[in-house]
Write a structure and sequence with these properties.
Distance between the termini: 11 Å
Bound molecules: 5-hydroxymethyl-3,4-dihydroxypiperidine
Structural class: alpha/beta
CATH architecture: Alpha-Beta Barrel
Radius of gyration: 21 Å
Oligomer: single chain
Shape: globular
Low-confidence stretches: none
Length: about 475
Amino acid sequence: MTIIDPLTFPPGFTWGAATASYQIEGAAAEDGRTPSIWDTFSHTPGRTRDGDTGDEACDHYHRYREDVALMADLGLGAYRFSIAWPRVQPGGSGPMNQKGLDFYRRLVDELLEHGITPWVTLYHWDLPQELEDAGGWPARDTAARFAEYAALVHGALGDRVRHWTTFNEPWCSAFLGYASGVHAPGRQHAPDALAAMHHLLLGHGEAVRAIRAADDQARLGITLNLYAISPADPASAGDLEAARRIDGLANRIFLDPVLRGAYPDDVRRDLAGISDFGFVHDGDLQTISAPLDLLGINYYSRHVVAAPDPDAPAEPYWRAPTSWPGSEDVRFLKRPGVPVTDMDWEVDAPGLTETLVRVATDYPGVPLYVTENGAAYVDSRGTDGEIDDADRVAYFDAHFRAAAAAIAQGAPLEGYFAWSLLDNFEWAWGYSKRFGMIAVDYATQERTIKASGHRYREVIKRNGLAE
Ligand code: IFM
């Protein structure tokens, strides 16, 4: 028996896919591009799985026409991609590089010719190395450099692009980049990570101000990676406290300044032993909380957390650098029986509904977009050459339903971008993790649409699920 379960999305709902410059472009030293922190990091022995780098990646720089044709084949309404700062402004200051800009102009024109709306992310982690050498995100001046770069990119593409997000996942840039150091630039210093966080947000606010002043048609936002957070035992005061702390560091420390104009008091108290937040200058929070037209939410999984193990030896934070300054002792647990992806992340679609409804309730008034959602799995090719990625199909399906449930509960969700269009360079994991709806054979650069891509085409076509 076929069960008909019509889950139709609102008219005009945006269906897209997302990528990021360093993960797909390649052409790392072409047409004037200079190294970013990810070039330096990935070329440093021991930093990425198998020493993988983004030197060639998916060679999208040369194959963008083929890739846009694939997007059109899937029926995408929008494509979210990022600009490589060192490609368009080598070294991170001074004049723009025309050849770098021309690449993005050609890409945008190709998208528009295929009826696909371009969504630009201004920063998806490729900070010009020279700016890191000058202090990186812990240095306040980097925010000013970013705002200048953002205004220049907008000046070059603003006639063709309406949708702009400043940063992708500033949590990762600040805490993976400067606290645990598992991402570029690979530093481990919690006070610097907090300064980095603030300067990323300041750069966001200053860029919004600059673009808004130049363009009253621009739709402006930021993308945050938000998590559903649960205490391992909801009856345990210690686990509830762990959940409060991690929710503070993962979610509220970004949502509150951007959407309420203040850092949360409880989180500042948690962090008092690490930083006095002296990096916050008068007027910063007003800049950071400039009104937005949209909030991008990247959702992948849930954190289930528990109180510190009372038998574990107390470690000062600098001896055990993690991505959670001040809460290094919180335990992150896996629930028995809950399936995980190839990243070892629990599959938790209800967490997407929870996250969207929570943001809509606690921070009302801003349209929401899922700007990333997807899963890494080990794919295998059948004898017919097809890739039947049933796990990924199921993951997407569950999350489409979760998104629909959030809309039904009142969340102002206006679009969804699958991560990712293509298999690509998964940062410290190199090419060992595949997130694409389209497989990439890195030896030949051949692309193959997986079953999840074919399924996405159907969902887009009917603006929802029918079964
Ligand atoms: O590949 C990343 C992306 O660059 C940012 N969001 C999470 C994805 C999967 O890890």
